[in-house]
Write a structure and sequence with these properties.
GST N-terminal domain-containing protein, Glutathione-S-Trfase_C_sf, globular, Glutathione_S-Trfase_N, about 260 residues, alpha+beta, GST_UstS-like_C
């Protein structure tokens, strides 16, 4: 009997490792919980057709009522191979994985057993609402100054067919690298400085000064690290070399804490 595996849908690129931060948030949890999974690669022009084909729910709706399909998406056949669970939206997937697999996973006749479940939790008791707010901040405020720099660079890392998908005769303005690169990076650093000052409150008796919840890795840390991975993969020389030195090396330390969860299967 073969081991059932979760399928994680991701976008391919012309660099060795995947880069999409929202998808990395899910991959980090899968690795952290040691869940069996494999990645299926889908180019941008094929996302909607592929996700419709597997019955994935849309992640949003356009003003005209048309559904929007986006990654990440998982298909989970572990508990029910005949009727696998299909989910979209990184935060919805994170909560599902936490509820369904609170502990370490062992394959034994498709039975799940929890061992040291507290050590494998990404939402410690009572933290889900605050972590949801934190992750929203990471997405909507913290990462926002990165977009003018990272979106054009990410587009350049896509296969040619996916690059063309975003072009309609002329290059959209959001795919043009900003001319004032250093000014853009200063705006990024302001956000990193602010977050570092907040996280420093977890030092001393309240924590190790590295992770968001004090001592143990949580979903909040994976939200930050997914952004760091995006920068390291797409802008290793222009971005990651400077960021890993900011704030006393804090971001490099967090990266190292999460490094064991960065496998790609």
């Amino acid at each position: 009997m073969s081991q059932p595996m979760i399928i994680l849908y991701d976008v391919p690129s012309n660099i060795p490792q995947p880069w999409a931060p929202n998808i990395w948030r899910v991959r980090l949890i899968l690795n952290f919980k040691r869940l069996p999974y494999r990645t299926t690669w889908v180019e941008f022009p094929d996302i909607e057709e592929t996700l419709r084909g597997i019955g994935a729910p849309p992640t949003s709706v356009r003003n005209d009522g048309r559904p929007v399909f986006s990654l990440p998406v998982i298909v989970d056949p572990i508990r029910s191979p005949q009727a696998p669970i299909v989910l979209s939206n990184a935060s919805h997937i994170a909560e599902y994985l936490e509820i369904t697999y609170p502990g370490q996973y062992n394959f034994l006749s498709a039975i799940l057993i929890s061992e040291q479940s507290a050590a494998r939790q990404v939402f410690p008791e009572g933290s889900r609402a605050l972590q949801a707010l934190f992750v929203h901040y990471i997405q909507e405020i913290f990462a926002k100054p990165l977009l003018p720099i990272m979106v054009p660079l990410s587009h350049q890392r896509l296969p040619e067919r996916s690059q063309t998908h975003f072009l309609s005769g002329t290059t959209p303005s959001y795919l043009s690298v900003p001319p004032e690169r250093e000014q853009a990076w200063r705006a990024v650093q302001e956000q990193f400085d602010f977050l570092a000052n907040i996280l420093d409150k977890n030092s001393g008796t309240d924590g190790d000064g590295v992770v968001a919840m004090g001592h143990e890795l949580t979903y909040a840390d994976f939200a930050i690290v997914s952004v760091l991975i995006w920068i390291e993969k797409v802008a290793p020389h222009d971005g990651w070399v400077r960021i890993r030195q900011w704030n006393g090396g804090r971001w490099g330390k967090l990266w190292e804490r999460c490094k064991s969860c960065m496998d790609v299967f």
